[in-house]
TrEMBL record:
Subunit text: Part of the 50S ribosomal subunit; part of the 5S rRNA/L5/L18/L25 subcomplex. Contacts the 5S and 23S rRNAs.
Family annotation (Pfam families): Ribosomal_L18p
Alphabetic keyword roster: Ribonucleoprotein, Ribosomal protein, RNA-binding, rRNA-binding
Gene name in the database record: rplR
Domain of life of the source: Bacteria
GO BP, sorted A to Z: translation
The protein's name in its UniProt record: Large ribosomal subunit protein uL18
Length: 120
């Protein structure tokens, strides 16, 4: 039986494989959620570069958030990544939730990014 970590890696790879198949050259909006913070990057897989990033550890967000581990913090990070991605010239992305279920903080981040101007 596989360990929990191996199962998470396998699930994330399965999601990324299906995303890359339908990406058509669009950058990937990759999300990582820990127990205390949430991190997000817009990644251009063709060039292998990060175009924009945001997290609850950013100095401008950190002071305004009560904690980095709730849906309000995830929504704030979603708005910030949308703003930074649009500033970098990216409007169309594919959403990479990794091994995480589309629920709670992941869903709040995705909806805030859509409201901020990203299309996926």
């Amino acid at each position: 039986m596989a360990s929990r970590k191996e199962a998470l890696v396998r699930r994330a790879n399965r999601v990324r494989r299906s995303i890359k198949a339908v990406a058509n050259g669009r950058p990937r909006l990759s999300v990582h959620r820990s127990s205390k913070n949430i991190y997000v990057q817009v990644i251009d897989d063709v060039a292998g570069k990060t175009l924009a990033s945001a997290s609850t550890l950013d100095t401008d967000l950190r002071s305004s958030l009560k904690t980095g581990a709730d849906t309000a913090a995830a929504a704030a990070v979603g708005k910030l990544i949308a703003e930074r991605a649009v500033k970098a010239g990216v409007k169309e992305v594919v959403f990479d939730r990794g091994a995480f279920i589309y629920h709670g903080r992941i869903k709040a981040l995705a909806e805030a990014a859509r409201e901020g101007g990203l299309h996926f």
